[in-house]
Amino acid sequence: MALKKQFNQIKYIKFPWLKEIHRDAHSQPFEHLGIAWSNYFQKLKNGTIAKIQKQRMKEGKRYDPDLGKPNFKRKGKCKDSFYLANDKFKINDKIVKMPKIGNVKMIETLRFEGKILSATVSKEANKWYIAIQIEVTEEIYFKQRMQNSTTGIDLGITAAVTLSSGKKILSPKPLKKALRRLKIRQRKLTHKIKFAKIIAGLKVNQPFPKGAYLKKSNNFNKQSAKLNKTHKRIKNIRLDWTHKLTSKLCRENQAIVMEDLNVSGMLKNHRLARAINDIGFGRIRQQLFYKASRYGVAVFMADRWYPSSKKCSNCGHILECLPLSARIWQCPLCGFVHDRDVNAAINLKQLVSVTTLPMANLSGDGNTIVEIPSEMVGKVTPVRYERSARDGSGQEQNFACNHLYVHFESSPTVNTMPAKSLKPWT
Question: How do the pLDDT tens digits run along the chain, 426 residues long?
């Protein structure tokens, strides 16, 4: 706040162009800056940054004193967006009236009815979007499930998602399909950057001087727009598939069990990194977590060292070694033939072999009471919905938006399970 007051005294003197934009656009970044520094000091306090520094030193990298600190944004290198408070804009059907800009036509009307809290206007590729945050009632926020079954899901590359029922769901893999077009457009843009360097009097292989401005031609801007459009199409196809998949899983199940994969470690394998990113393991997990609260679904994370693939789901025998290339294997003890991915999904489901699952309490906080037997192998972690407890904001309301942040008073209750085998998910 002291930095913000200091900025307010000189902003129109040092930066007269700020008069042309709305106040919220240059006021809200101070809130984001405060949150960024708070997160940095919290990581320093709990030793997260120290662990990362040690890992970097083991890998032969230098000690970085600025590791984890907030970085300056740069025009053209970050997402274009600005914030609007709820009293600074008005919506009338498909028209939104914004300060300094005026009336702008939207493609669709608001999907939810309730109190408008704020809005964020952002640009992706050649299109502008407005994300409006609305406070809604519990009747609108919570949704009813179609079925009340339990399933285990195994994430993979050959089949993106394998269910314990034996069904395999393939990913559209938009990056793989558009890779040739992406390379061609990227190569054309690189040629235009080289030509811009020659016009500026620089050599082609010479690094660009810090703080200097590279004059961009109209053809450069056109080619850049084409490249951004290709990237956005890839992103939209992947998001559409993950949203449909996670919504289907939450509508049809009361309990979902998945493995706590070390995605960042898997991405270090350069043979698999592109395929993993093309599926979006992290995005699937993220969407399952926030949609589970709306449908009253209990999501459990199995320990990442649990041998779901090497364990026979028929007799429980665990193999000493199972190479990644072995997609089908036979149990040496009982002779049962397993599909690797289906077997892993069945083992995950057996971790939470629920005998009776009650109906979700949609009138309360959306949490489901799940009875789990104590005879379990491996660790199972219930999802927690305690954003208000973590950030100390004290807000315990339900919000619906393009980007949902859900506040709950307590985590899903779990009974008849040893306390040592549980840990909060964060």
Answer: 889 999 999 999 999 999 888 888 888 889 999 999 999 999 999 999 998 898 888 888 888 888 999 988 877 778 889 999 999 999 998 999 999 899 999 999 998 889 999 999 999 888 899 999 999 998 889 998 998 889 999 999 889 999 999 999 999 999 999 999 999 999 999 999 888 888 878 887 877 777 677 788 899 999 999 999 999 999 999 999 999 999 999 999 999 999 888 888 888 888 889 999 999 999 999 999 999 999 999 999 888 888 888 999 888 889 888 888 888 989 988 888 999 999 999 999 988 864 334 433 333 333 333 333 333 334 444 443 333 333 433 333 343 433 322 222 233 322 222 322 333 333
Tokens of 280: 């979006």
DSSP 329-369: EE-TTT--EEEHHHHHHHHHHHHT--S--PPP-TTTTS---
Domain ranges of the chain: 1-60, 79-135, 140-421
Residues 89, 104 contacting (CB under 8 angstroms): no
Q: In a 3-state reduction of DSSP, which class is residue 414?
A: strand
3 burial via Cβ count (<10 Å: 0-12, 13-18, 19+): exposed
